[in-house]
TrEMBL record, chain A:
This is Vacuolar-sorting protein SNF8. InterPro entries: ESCRT-2_cplx_Snf8, Snf8/Vps36, WH-like_DNA-bd_sf, WH_DNA-bd_sf. Belongs to the SNF8 family. Gene3D superfamilies: 6.10.140.180, Winged helix-like DNA-binding domain superfamily/Winged helix DNA-binding domain. The lineage of its organism: Eukaryota, Fungi, Dikarya, Basidiomycota, Agaricomycotina. Coiled coil: none annotated. GO terms for biological process: protein transport to vacuole involved in ubiquitin-dependent protein catabolic process via the multivesicular body sorting pathway. It comes from Hypholoma sublateritium (strain FD-334 SS-4). It comes from the Eukaryota. GO terms for cellular component: ESCRT II complex. Transmembrane segments: none annotated.
Automatic annotation (TrEMBL), chain B:
The keyword Transport applies. Keywords: Protein transport, Transport. Pfam families: ESCRT-II. One of its GO terms (molecular function) is protein homodimerization activity. InterPro entries: ESCRT-II_cplx_Vps25-sub, ESCRT-II_cplx_Vps25-sub_N, WH-like_DNA-bd_sf, WH_DNA-bd_sf. Belongs to the VPS25 family. One of its GO terms (biological process) is protein transport to vacuole involved in ubiquitin-dependent protein catabolic process via the multivesicular body sorting pathway. It comes from the Eukaryota. GO terms for cellular component: ESCRT II complex. This is ESCRT-II complex subunit VPS25.
Length: 248, 191
């Protein structure tokens, strides 16, 4: 029998195409329905979890740690979501809790800055924040502080955790430059990042001791600049990386 | 002055930090230095891979004209890494198993691992299979200097030995004494 040559073959082809299309859309609709019901199920379970455990998560650091580890291991960020804070965070109230802690961290960092130059040990910060929260605030851990600092990141506060000799410290120096450092930054920006003692002495009338102390502090204490010992003109120059122009 | 990446005559793309003058000085601030060491290690490994270099010596920076000039020096800003600094970076790389001292018991020359010995073992085994030399007895020279240039051309003998011994652990290689030294036979992967 000859097949698929006459005009009727076109009709046949069209018809089978239509049937397949109908079948495939039916299949995908079934799949979508299935997914919807799974998602609804998940939401209910989550809401249930949130209402049962919200208080434990907020007040018990061990439970909170376990919860956060669970979230990390399944690749869920309890603070992430399409809406502000995310629906997961809303259910748990964890977002607000975390941001509140963030504000307290900032409070402590700012108020202790005069003493410590914007660098504070994490353990010390924890002690201050705990004091600020009082007994009713529930216990918090270093891990909670670290997480809160991370949530501050999108605000561009420049808060970061550094390790000095194995000891974790929080630095908020970016916004707490003293006058001498600001002067140095300005000069650095003019010279593409490079600063030398003589510039500060000549242009700002500083004594050599003052110039050296300010530069060495930025270098050694703050890690704000890098040293160049091969400078052709002065032998020793300082380079403020944040003042250099980087084409990336 | 702005810092940008730069393509060397050998076609290697230098990162922008390489045009920053202080990159060539060891940093007294340990945090800063950790960044610098990480950058240098990465640069050294990438360049070694690019030019298929295996051995880095402190001398390479003491005299110009070495294979490593393009990264150890930056003539555009008149800087070069100082020998003491290079030696410390080499030490850090050894500590992280990114390199080993070669020969052992000295600290002025390293063999850089732009592929780990385990990775070299697989490269070696793949080469043996693709050139149909399973069960054939090969001298080290056959491997380091094959008639048709391979990924293994020029591989230092010490590294080759490591790769062979890794393969021997899974029964894929056998060292054999032959008339003029040592030979090796590669065997099919046992099921």
């Amino acid at each position: 029998m000859r097949r698929g040559v006459g005009l009727a073959a076109f009709d046949r082809q069209e018809q089978s195409k239509r049937s397949f299309a109908a079948l495939s859309s039916e299949l995908s609709r079934a799949q979508i329905d299935d997914l919807h019901s799974q998602l609804a199920h998940f939401r209910t379970a989550l809401a249930h979890f949130a209402t049962t455990h919200r208080e434990s998560i907020k007040n018990d650091p061990t439970f909170r740690h376990a919860f956060q580890q669970m979230c990390a291991s399944i690749g869920v960020d309890p603070l992430a979501g399409p809406r502000k804070g995310g629906w997961w965070a809303e259910l748990l109230g964890l977002g607000d809790w975390q941001y509140e802690l963030g504000v307290q961290v900032v409070d402590v960092c700012v108020s202790t800055r005069e003493q410590n130059g914007g660098l504070i040990a994490l353990s010390e910060l924890l002690r201050f924040v705990s004091k600020l929260r009082g007994v009713s605030g529930g216990e918090i851990t270093e891990e909670d502080i670290v997480r809160s600092i991370k949530t501050l990141h999108p605000l561009g506060t420049g808060y970061q955790i550094v390790e000095v000799d194995g000891r974790k410290m929080v630095r908020s120096i970016v916004k707490s430059l003293d006058d001498d450092q600001t002067t140095i930054l300005v000069i650095a920006q003019e010279g593409g990042g490079r600063v030398v003692e003589d510039q500060l002495i000549r242009r700002k009338g500083w004594t050599r001791d003052r110039a050296r102390a300010a530069l060495e502090n930025m270098l050694l204490r703050d890690g704000l600049c890098w040293l160049d010992e091969q400078d052709e003109r002065s032998g020793r120059s300082y380079w403020v990386f944040s003042a250099m122009q980087w084409d990336v | 002055m702005s810092l940008s990446t730069y393509t060397t005559t050998s076609g290697f793309l230098l990162p922008s930090i390489h045009s920053a003058p202080p990159f060539f000085t060891e940093q007294p601030n340990p945090t800063t230095q950790a960044t610098a060491t990480a950058q240098w290690s990465r640069l050294i490994l990438a360049y070694a891979r690019h030019k298929k270099l295996f051995i880095l010596r402190v001398e390479d920076v003491e005299t110009s004209g070495s294979d490593w000039d393009e990264i150890l020096r930056n003539t555009r800003i008149n800087r070069k890494i100082l020998p003491g600094y290079l030696s410390n970076i080499m030490e850090a790389m050894v500590a992280q198993n990114l390199a080993v001292y070669e020969p052992v018991k000295q600290t002025r020359s390293v063999l850089v691992y732009w592929r780990l010995p385990e990775e070299w073992a697989e490269v070696l085994y793949d080469w043996v299979i693709s050139t149909g030399q399973l069960n054939t007895i090969l001298t080290f020279y056959d491997i380091t200097d094959p008639p048709l240039e391979s990924l293994l051309t020029g591989i230092p003998i010490s590294l080759l030995r490591k790769a062979i011994s890794i393969l021997s652990k899974t029964g894929r290689s056998q060292t054999i004494a032959i008339a003029d030294g040592e030979g090796v036979r590669f065997l099919a992967r046992s099921k």
